[in-house]
Amino acid sequence: MSANRNVAIICRNTITREGLCRILDETRFNVLQAADSPAQLTRADSPELPAGTLVLIDDGTCQCDAATVKDLHSAHPGIRPVVLTESFDYSAMIEALRSGAFGYIVKEISCEPLVNTLELVAHGEKVLPSQLADVLQTRPALGAVADVADVQAATNLSQREVEILEWLIMGCPNKVISRHMDISEATVKVHVKAILRKLNVKNRTQAAIWAANNGLRGRSFDEASTPALPLGTKAPAPVATEALVAADAIKWPTASAGLTVPA
């Protein structure tokens, strides 16, 4: 079992904690510790968790504020905290992201999607709940909608790369994008690499944030025309562009500033 599949669980409720342990033990994860409070993992005598370990925190039974997540990061550098919450709370999600959480999951999720979501975190992705899509539709836009031609001129992105960037805003993996655009997954991968290079960003999440912050909007899903996904493929959820920008993770430039992202 590779280190990036390790997980620790923090949950005060014994039945819930044991249930999570059993679910994850029977899949692709190795449960290293199961604690009833964050304090058990932040004590001086607590064994240090390997870098890349997921720390699943049940916010419904344990207090999980910014200080808690930061304390966990201090005690175990390199971990990837994931908050498991009873209901979606936009402000709480923002706070979790600001404090260093890699995921915010609502308990309405079933076992298989939960495991798939944690797999994404194990591979370095940040994951957010589908409920965020409904919230973002009711919140003010980050800025005026950009003219695609202006974006292309300022970034040297091709029309197809802009379209893929709009799918990235929606949180779509390469497999889903390839089906929507009727191109191969390998071709999507090549375009994504080109997008990252041209925008001078490190990953697809940063690219999506840049796009939304510079006036691009995500592609809309038409249920009637959306192709069926292969068994086991996680349905995409929009990237939390507003949330991550609000979290001050990166100071994003405007198109007139030269489209460079500070290191």
UniProtKB/TrEMBL annotation:
Which top-level group of life is the source organism from? Bacteria
Task: Indicate the transmembrane segments per the record.
Answer: none
Domain Response regulatory per the UniProt entry, residue ranges: 6-122
| One Pfam short name | GerE
Q: Gene3D superfamilies this protein is in?
A: 3.40.50.2300
Domain (HTH luxR-type) spans 150-215
Q: Which SUPFAM superfamilies match?
A: C-terminal effector domain of the bipartite response regulators (SSF46894), CheY-like (SSF52172)
Look up the record and give one Gene Ontology term from the biological process aspect.
regulation of DNA-templated transcription
Spell out which residues are annotated as carrying 4-aspartylphosphate.
Answer: 58
According to the UniProt entry, its GO molecular function terms are: DNA binding
Keyword terms:
DNA-binding, Phosphoprotein, Transcription, Transcription regulation
SMART domains linked to this entry: HTH_LUXR (SM00421)
Write the protein's name.
DNA-binding response regulator
Q: Which organism's genome codes for this protein?
A: Aurantiacibacter spongiae
